[in-house]
Amino acid sequence: MEGVAVLVMEMQRGVVGDLTKFPDLVAACERHHVVGNTARLLHAARTAGIPVIHCTAAFRPDRAGSHTANSPFIVSLLKDPLHMLEGTPAVEVLPELRDPGDLESRRHHGFSPFTGTSLDMTLRSLGVSTVIAAGVSLNLGIPGLALEAVNLGYRVTVVTDAVAGIPEDYAQAVLKHTISLLAARATAADLIEAWK
User: Fold this and answer.
1) Please, which pLDDT band fits residue 83 given cuts at 50, 70 and 90?
2) Is the pTM of this model over 0.85?
3) CB environment 123-148: b (16+ within 10 A), e (fewer)
4) What CATH number corresponds to the domain at position 73?
5) pLDDT interval class at 61 (50, 70, 90)
6) Is residue 195 within 8 Å of 50, Cβ to Cβ?
7) Which domain holds residue 19?
8) pLDDT computed for residue 63 by the predictor
9) Looking at the predicted structure, is the pLDDT value of residue 78 above 70?
């Protein structure tokens, strides 16, 4: 499908997988079947010829390229010097979501995937005008992705059953009161049917 790409936000082993430091977020993903819904969405996208780009996060051991003290959340994360280090299994995309033909956009700072990365140029080189957002979290990453994408001129759809955040009532409020102002909303099944 021309002009569309799927952006998968931080579905990494150290975020929502077997090496997580965020068990509450993993539990939220399990409640909403986020990994399974995302896997089905990505399979349908690849079948339809839609690019899949994994937007991942990592830190260098020396923290070069990362602002390490400009956010309370990052300060707390980096109390663990081994957290999400480049080249470690923690930064890998969940195995069930990876495919050799997928692209990856890695960032070393901040909470959203466009600023300071080549993601915008990659999307433009692919002729993309609409991005489909899945992944985590509704606390930071998904709103940041949607806002930046809209500011750059993209249309955005957030896959409501392929995202999660904590606590549950807050995540649902973000979908209702923030995402609804920035993006269209659809389920994985809606998009899979549209791409057939």
Assistant:
1) confident
2) yes
3) beebebebbbbbbbbbbbbbbbbbbb
4) 3.40.50.850
5) confident
6) yes
7) 4-194
8) 66
9) no
Q: How many domains does the chain have?
A: 1
Place of tokens 């999660």: 164
Q: Report helix angle 23-31 to 34-47, nearest 10.
A: 60
Q: Which amino acid is at 138?
A: L
Name the band, by pLDDT with cuts 50, 70 and 90, for residue 154: very high
Q: How many CB atoms lie within 10 A of CB 7?
A: 27
Three-class HEC string of the chain = CCCEEEEEECCEHHHHCCCCCCHHHHHHHHHCCHHHHHHHHHHHHHHCCCCEEEEEECECCCCCCCCCCCCHHHHHHCCCCCCCECCCHHHCECHHHCCCCCEEEEECCCCCCCCCCCHHHHHHHCCCCEEEEEEECCCCHHHHHHHHHHHCCCEEEEEEEEEECCCHHHHHHHHHHHHHHHCEEECHHHHHHHCC
Q: Are 130 and 156 in contact (CB under 8 A)?
A: yes
